[in-house]
Amino acid sequence: ALAAGGLIAWLRRWPSWPASLIALVAAIIATRLLDLRSAGVEMVGTVAAPGFAPHLPDLGRDAWLRVAELAVGLVVLLFAESWGSMRALALQRGDTLNANRELLALGAANLASGLLQGMPVGAGFSASAANHGAGAQSRRAGAIACGVLGLAVAVALPALQWLPRPVLGVAVIAALWHALSPAPLVATWRLGRDRLLVAGAVVAVLALGLLHGMLAAVALSIVEALRRFSQPVLHELAALPGTRNFVNRPEHPDAVPVPGALILRPQEPLFFASAERVMAEAAARLAARGAATLVLSLEESGDLDSTALECLLELDRRLQDRGQRLLLARVKEPVRALLARSAPDGLGRPEGLFWSVADAANSLAGPAPPGSGA
């Protein structure tokens, strides 16, 4: 392993040379000449030639159920690792990613691999880093690598049984070494954001291994997102004098509240885990203020699920019973269409839906809209 590492390091003087490949070939030759196997060096061993006959998997019912269970975690893992690798290298090279194209290619590759009874396919960090480190500049590098691998399978596969495992490990480490840097973790830590996720991901990978560690890190990210979304922050907005801008009132002492109204903005999208809590807090704050009108700014909500819609309609009915009214500002087109279908004579009336907070505030200067649950 030390000799292989030294050879790779020495060959790095010539970047155009495939240092790792040369080291692997040299190790195979040394194994045959020096009989390293008898000296106790562990070898890769015989690798069975793959079959390339496309057909659907012949599995029983229990096996399909087991595959379905594993597929969920595998999809999450492949997406997380592949997108992370692609994004990291794109940022490093100044490239722009087309997410749809990249994910379509990933899905097509997995479909083809499944039909050929192959392994799951992903843009693994090790392979991506090795490709980048070898100086790949275009998609032709992938085609050339595919051709070389095909040639290796056809010609050199029997020779792999003589490859020492330590040398293979050195080759993998050499491919990843240039990409191993704590700088991204340190930068994220200094931002003061996602520290729990960073620490949890590192500990999970070190404790559970790459596969289960990444799955644990993804699960932790999902739990953290749900926690944040289910504990929304409601900001009270007030107008900056002489402008149409409405800002967070506690952070701008010079901002002026709209008389007779309470304007609130949820900082997270409304969905099933957050909607009830947002509506309950909004109703409580309106009652404490004693204002006649509640304006909710929905700029963070591009759409609403059924629970969020029901909570909005319930809040509108509750306020009507108290002799108050609800107006919605910064309402996106999908939300407008949903409200128009669900409550055309109530909250979905155009008179109660506004494109901006300033328009909603200006409407309060005039008479209340007729039949105003909106």
Taking all residues together, what is the mean pLDDT?
82
Structural class by SSE content: alpha/beta
Shape: elongated
- What profile does the largest beta sheet have? 5 strands, mixed
Q: Any idea of the CATH topology of the domain at 234-365? A: Transcription Regulator spoIIAA
How much beta, percentage-wise?
Answer: 5-15%
Strands side by side in the biggest sheet? 2-1-3-4-5
Structural topology:
Layout: H1 2-11, H2 19-34, H3 61-93, H4 99-115, H5 125-133, H6 140-156, H7 165-177, H8 183-191, H9 195-208, H10 210-230, E1 234-239, E2 246-248, E3 261-266, H11 275-289, E4 293-297, H12 306-321, E5 325-329, H13 333-342, H14 357-363
Parallel strand pairs: 3-4, 4-5
Antiparallel strand pairs: 1-2, 1-3
